[in-house]
Q: What sequence folds into this?
């Protein structure tokens, strides 16, 4: 096992990785931007290296500075967390060339799954169904023809990146040209690549994803699914495992086909480490959306229902230890719900609400709070609005909903904006979702928040 | 009548979508603020003419800062 690793991230995930390393006796190196010099992750690690800058592009995305920090501190490996450098094949390759282990899959696997057209071709070749859409980047002059073939409504999305930046739903041909243009501009500005895709827009899909672990030598196991249908602007708000669709053995053959598809997709790129295959499920059919070649934000709900520590396995696999988990021994028990606590105002179109936390505490049964903040810390406008993940678990879904509601009631989370007004959080919205008849029934789809609001 | 158009959130000016002297209609996007990885448009509160632009692309702004002055 490694003696020292560098954590190339911030916030809750950097803290969580540092915690796992502490338990395993691995020393940790934090990196931080100017805005994060007092951040919790910096204090949790054994050493810390300043990257300078505030915006991600001037700090956490600076591969050269991160690598230099690893060299300087003698870190043997780099854990990229999620976001930032986690899905940058060039960075993984630069690590390799520098003799530092990148804790994640090979640069080739990142590249093939990161290019959406290549990813579609790769999994289609394994018999995995994909969302009907353009095979590759659509030139503006082809857009009408492609959209007509796919069938309206269509989704116009950026070829590069992820997380829904620039994504737009187009109901008919009249709005297509403008949507393609604005999506392309946004993609160009965000990712330096203006390529766009067109695909079928589903009216009532569930977003379900399958967790896998691979050893890079052909062995892949799945760790069941996560239901991530509660989303705003294509960003997840609440995730759970198992999916209500598969509760108590329901739709077992669909679940098995999805697990098999996920394993085949991962095997196709000789996957190493933790990865997730995202799928849309509607009317008994499933379609591959993409593979995230990294740890997911919502990985704790898998950990709580399988008893497997995914970060620990990422470290072991990266260190060359054998993947000793056997599919037949993996079981899915109990229920877990993760709530993402965002500093944003759901009543004002989810307007971001940066500020300084004045109070932040939680003590509640069957609850874990993953966070990079504490009372007195500032949630700056430079990074994402997620203040914490509130992870709850219980024996059944109904019990877990109660546990989650109880945790929200006990949560103390307050802060002040720079102008002295109170910060906004999405806690009331989370309560409304948990308490809604639709969520409780388990028949949710990705539009649930639009109906609850 | 001159109207101050203020930033409704704390963040950074991502894009200025208007110019001094431009005639705008209520609801037109004047400025886009980026905050916490989201773009939030600042719209014209009424029809009018842009008198002044008091921000620059890349500039950090706080909620309540005046971004644009509009003559109704």
A:
């Amino acid at each position: 096992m490694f003696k020292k690793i560098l954590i190339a991230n911030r916030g809750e995930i950097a803290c969580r990785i540092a915690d796992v390393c502490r338990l395993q006796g691995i020393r940790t190196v934090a990196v931080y931007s100017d805005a994060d010099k007092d951040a919790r992750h910096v204090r949790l690690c054994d050493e810390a290296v300043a990257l300078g800058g505030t915006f991600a592009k001037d700090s956490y995305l600076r591969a050269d500075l991160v690598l230099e920090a690893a060299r300087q501190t003698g870190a043997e490996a780099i854990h990229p967390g999620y976001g930032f450098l986690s899905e940058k094949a060039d960075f993984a390759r630069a690590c390799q060339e520098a003799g530092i282990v990148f804790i994640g899959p090979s640069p080739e696997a990142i590249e093939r799954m990161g290019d959406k057209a290549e990813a579609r071709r790769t999994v289609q070749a394994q018999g995995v169904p994909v969302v009907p859409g353009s095979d590759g980047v659509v030139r503006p002059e082809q857009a009408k023809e492609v959209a007509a073939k796919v069938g309206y409504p269509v989704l116009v999305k950026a070829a590069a990146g992820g997380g829904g930046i620039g994504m737009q739903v187009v109901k008919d041909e009249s709005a297509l040209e403008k949507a393609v243009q604005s999506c392309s501009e946004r993609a160009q500005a965000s990712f330096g690549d203006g390529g766009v895709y067109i695909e079928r827009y589903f009216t009532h899909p569930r977003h379900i994803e399958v967790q896998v672990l691979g050893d890079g030598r052909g062995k892949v196991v799945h760790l069941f699914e996560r239901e991530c249908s509660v989303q705003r602007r294509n960003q997840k708000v609440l995730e759970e495992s198992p999916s209500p669709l598969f509760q108590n053995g329901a739709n077992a053959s669909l679940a098995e086909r999805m697990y098999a598809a996920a394993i085949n997709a991962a095997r196709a790129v000789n996957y190493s480490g933790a990865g997730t295959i995202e799928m849309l499920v509607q009317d008994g059919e499933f379609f591959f959306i993409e593979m995230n070649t990294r740890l997911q934000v919502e990985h704790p709900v898998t950990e709580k229902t399988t008893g497997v520590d995914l970060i620990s396995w990422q470290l072991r696999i990266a260190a060359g230890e054998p993947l000793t988990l056997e599919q037949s021994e993996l079981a899915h028990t109990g229920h877990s719900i993760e709530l993402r606590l965002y500093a944003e105002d759901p009543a004002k179109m989810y307007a971001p609400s940066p500020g300084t936390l004045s109070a932040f505490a939680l003590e509640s049964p069957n609850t874990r709070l993953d966070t990079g903040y504490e009372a007195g810390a500032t949630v700056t406008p430079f990074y994402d609005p997620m203040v914490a993940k509130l992870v709850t678990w219980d024996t059944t879904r109904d019990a877990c909903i109660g546990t989650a509601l109880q945790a929200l009631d006990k949560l103390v989370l307050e802060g002040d904006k720079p102008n002295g007004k109170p910060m906004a959080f999405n806690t009331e919205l989370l309560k409304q979702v948990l308490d809604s008849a639709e969520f409780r029934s388990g028949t949710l789809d990705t539009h649930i928040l639009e109906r609850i609001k | 009548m001159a109207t101050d158009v203020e930033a409704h959130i704390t963040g950074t000016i991502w894009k200025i979508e208007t110019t001094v002297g431009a005639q705008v209609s209520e609801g037109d996007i004047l400025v886009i603020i980026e905050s916490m990885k989201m773009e939030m448009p600042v719209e014209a509160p009424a029809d009018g003419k842009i008198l002044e632009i008091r921000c620059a692309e890349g500039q950090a702004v706080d909620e309540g800062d005046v971004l644009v002055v509009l003559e109704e």
